[in-house]
Amino acid sequence: MNRAVPKIALKGLKKRFGPKIVLDGIDLEVATGESLVVIGGSGTGKSVLLKCIIGIIEPDEGTVLIDGENTTHLAGADRTRLMRKFGMLFQGSALFDSLKVWENVAFGLIQGRGVGRTEAKEIALKKLAAVGLPPEVGDLSPSELSGGMQKRVGLARAIAAEPEIIFFDEPTTGLDPIMGDVINDLIVECRRQLGATTLSITHDLASARKIADRVAMIHGGKIVWSGPVSQIDRSGNPYVDQFIHGRAEGPIKMPVKVR
Amino acid sequence: MVPIVQPLGRAFLGFLETTGRICIFTLTAVSHALRPPYYPRLILRQMVEIGYYSLPVVGLTAIFTGMVLALQSYTGFTRFNAESAIPNVVVISIARELGPVLAGLMVAGRIGAAIAAEIGTMRVTEQIDALTTLSTNPFKYLIAPRLIAGLLMLPCLVLVADIIGVFGGYVVSTVKLSFNPQVYIRNTIDFLEPIDVISGLVKAAVFGFIVALMGCYHGYNSRGGAQGVGAATTNAVVSASILILTFNYAITELFFAR
User: Fold this and answer.
1) Which among B211, B203, B214 has a CA at the least distance from the CA of B22?
2) Which chain B residue's Cα is nearest to A57?
3) Which CATH superfamily is domain A1-85+163-259 in?
4) Sign of CA dihedral A16, A37, A174, A121
5) Which residues in chain B have Cβ-Cβ distances shorter than 8 Å to A87?
6) ipTM of the predicted structure?
7) Each residue of B169-207: pLDDT tens digit?
């Protein structure tokens, strides 16, 4: 592992929406080939963090470094070039419902890299096979699939162009525990094959334990703890303890009512 | 005094802010539409959607407008023996005003709403974010094809509407009001000037652009699930309709005011 230049480095990342401060100075590093899982409660800014790194949301302050390059305010062709390093699995899969399943998987190849349709379809069917879906599924439309299958197609789309960095936004949310574990296995397997760096956000601890090398806990717009996944049960951090035991009492107060 | 002026000022500032946002959105969209990559397949698909599938609704609007125009003019014009002007009134009203405006409003209801709902749903289900992560610019892939198709197809629709509308007037005049068919057609053609049709087609192009733009703008900026998409759809249709009527006056002033 190359510790000198981290694959992803965040320095003092801040973002607010109106009066609500979502990210309040995030410092985080992900080494090349590492799998970092960010855990935290609902509404703690996990998704915003991910979108700031990938460039869908522009942070107010702080910097995002990808391979040591400052990408915080990249735009236009530079941003498009950078996007080729990324793949992302969205929480709701975010498949294009106007396209067939195989066209979804091949989308980044055809539109982003100019691969021909016949060749792209071959690759798409291979990627579908890699996530355990038969070739017949390729000609269906995404709305004909179950949630778990949509998630698999989303995963196939995220890995289709063999990106260097893959983001997983709540990969197991909304799935039954067994399908969730199938997705976890697929994530681990894909990562092993591609050797990609991955950053996942989740509040599913079973998923975090399975796919993480290192875990970071976000609360109140800050990283309150980070360490190897093996340390998570004896972190000595009250926030992490409360979160992994799912206790209502503790330092984390869930705002039931909007002030 | 303050309680009255304060909300007024706030509403005015809000109006300016929205206008600014729409201007920036328009400039971004146009600049992306002019630069590669282009998506000819998507433009073609939108042209079929906006042009071809709007034909029935625009045609029906046009034929009844032409018919009612002839009938109303007749009942009014007989009071001062000006029935012979009916062919001219029908063709000029349709070509200059009613063709483009009514087609624009019908397409706003049909296409503006559909665009806002589709892009709005893509926004709230993160499909637009997914496009970005797949190295595809949503302005080029989603918005530019719709704007180009709107701009090109509305003039075609209006040309068809003009012909159908004049035909509607002709049918009522000859069948019900016992006009001579030959005289009616000669009067229609003799008094029609190219500028009447051209101004109508320019209006149509502007209206087509407005309808697509409002659909895209409100869809692209929709927030918060099904309710947000619903609001985006309503806003797209209402704002497109108001802008069509406003620009209709402005373009008429530009062409015909002396």
Assistant:
1) B214
2) B129
3) P-loop containing nucleotide triphosphate hydrolases (3.40.50.300)
4) positive
5) 133
6) 0.87
7) 999 999 999 899 999 999 999 989 999 999 999 999 999
